[in-house]
Specification:
alpha+beta; four-stranded antiparallel beta sheet; 4 strands; 47% helix; 9% strand
């Protein structure tokens, strides 16, 4: 797994977990059992979880620690079928009645534009950089600068240019060297190796 700006509610090894927004690559060992989950897109985690998303950043926390009522799910009534587990997760999320914040949504979209600058995004939205940082950190799990880095990485995956330097510029990197440094930092791989198998997740 690589940073993608999302927080996930995932049922693993017999119980549900909250997977906070990652800031570094994460390798999972195979568990030999079906897994299912719900992905909270960038900007929704804070509202759905009911706490600042940065509090779960880079962590895997049993969902019952945040939503105690979900402890009943694994108290002898754990659904065997993944569809039953997914239904419980979906119903719990809907029960939160979380509404998207238009300001957060606009910030996430604008920070995803190649070449976006935090100061310019804050000015366009009519807030200070400090306020934008507080809002985005609480909603996403990390601040706007890091979110822009994640967006560039996703843009690199999506870019279709065959030449690596052109692909880097299309994604918003200052240079191919800048791209190579960022890819290694966020994925632990060289850009060439990473792009061999990279595919966009639904974020």
């Amino acid at each position: 797994m690589i940073p993608d700006g999302c927080v996930d509610l995932v049922w693993l090894d017999g119980r549900p977990f909250v997977m906070g927004a990652d800031t570094k690559p994460l390798v999972w060992a195979a568990i030999g059992a079906p897994a299912c989950g719900i992905r909270l897109r960038p900007g929704m985690a804070g509202a759905v979880l009911g706490l600042p998303a940065y509090e779960v950043r880079d962590q895997q926390i049993p969902l019952a620690q945040l939503w105690p009522s979900t402890s009943e799910w694994t108290d002898g009534t754990d659904p065997v079928e993944p569809s039953g587990r997914l239904r419980l997760l979906a119903e719990a999320v809907l029960h939160r009645r979380a509404e998207p914040d238009p300001l957060i949504g606009a910030a996430v979209r604008r920070l995803g534009v190649p070449g976006a600058r935090v100061a310019a995004v804050a000015a366009d939205l009519g807030v200070s950089e400090r306020h934008l940082n507080r809002l985005v950190s609480a909603a996403v799990g990390y601040g706007p600068k890091f979110l822009a880095r994640v967006a560039r990485l996703r843009g690199l995956i999506a870019a279709g240019e065959p030449v690596l330097a052109d692909r880097a510029l299309a994604a918003g990197y200052a240079s191919q060297a800048h791209m190579a440094d960022e890819v290694r930092c966020l994925t632990g791989l060289t850009a060439v190796r990473f792009l061999e198998d990279a595919a966009l997740t639904a974020a």
